[in-house]
């Protein structure tokens, strides 16, 4: 699977901003999309944002629309999540993902180790 290295998490006050980065390792198959999900204590992991690497099409969860922006740098195999107007309910471990199309038409999702984002009120 793709090795994903996340960075940029931390503690911020409500209303503040953070920018997460996720760098993907070289991989023999095409990475067609990358994204972010998050998991708060006691809750299930939920989708946050995704971006298609070929055309830059993006998608967001309703809870973050207008506040978070996902972007990419194809030359670095890296995606970013700019988070603004952060709320205490954004507190979670944020996980990066990479979706690949592999041999025989199989699809695989790889996940990073996660980075903690904590928002104080």
Task: Explain the overall architecture.
The protein is mainly β. The protein is 0% helix and 56% strand. It is built from no helices and eleven strands. Strands 2, 4, 5, 6, 9, 10 and 11 form a seven-stranded mixed sheet that branches. It has a four-stranded antiparallel sheet with strand order 1-3-8-7, with no helix packed on it. Strand 7 and strand 8 form a beta hairpin.
Question: What is the fold's blueprint, element by element?
Answer:
Blueprint: E1 4-7, E2 10-13, E3 18-24, E4 30-39, E5 46-52, E6 58-60, E7 68-73, E8 78-83, E9 92-101, E10 107-111, E11 115-120
Parallel strand pairs: 2-11
Antiparallel strand pairs: 1-3, 3-8, 4-5, 4-9, 5-6, 7-8, 9-10, 9-11
Distance between the termini: 38 Å
Number of separate strands: 11
Main beta-sheet strand count, sense and barrel state: 7 strands, mixed
Report the portion of residues in β strands.
over 45%
The residue fraction in helices comes out at under 10%
Structural class, from helix and strand content? mainly beta
Care to give the gist of this entry?
Helix content is 0%, strand content 56%. With 121 residues, the protein is an all-beta fold.
Q: What tags apply to this protein structure?
A:
121 residues, mainly beta, 7-stranded mixed beta sheet, 4-stranded antiparallel beta sheet, 56% strand, elongated
């Amino acid at each position: 699977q793709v090795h994903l290295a996340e960075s940029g998490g931390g503690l911020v006050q409500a209303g503040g901003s953070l920018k997460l980065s996720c760098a993907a390792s070289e991989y023999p198959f095409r990475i067609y999309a990358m994204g972010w999900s998050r998991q708060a204590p006691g809750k299930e992991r939920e989708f946050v944002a995704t971006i298609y690497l070929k055309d830059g099409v993006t998608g967001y969860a309703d809870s973050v629309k207008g506040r978070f922006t996902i972007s990419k740098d194809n030359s670095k195999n890296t995606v970013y999540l700019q988070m603004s107007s952060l709320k205490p309910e954004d507190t979670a471990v944020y996980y990066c993902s990479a979706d690949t199309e592999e041999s025989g038409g199989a699809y695989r999702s790889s996940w990073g180790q996660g980075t903690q984002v904590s928002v104080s009120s």
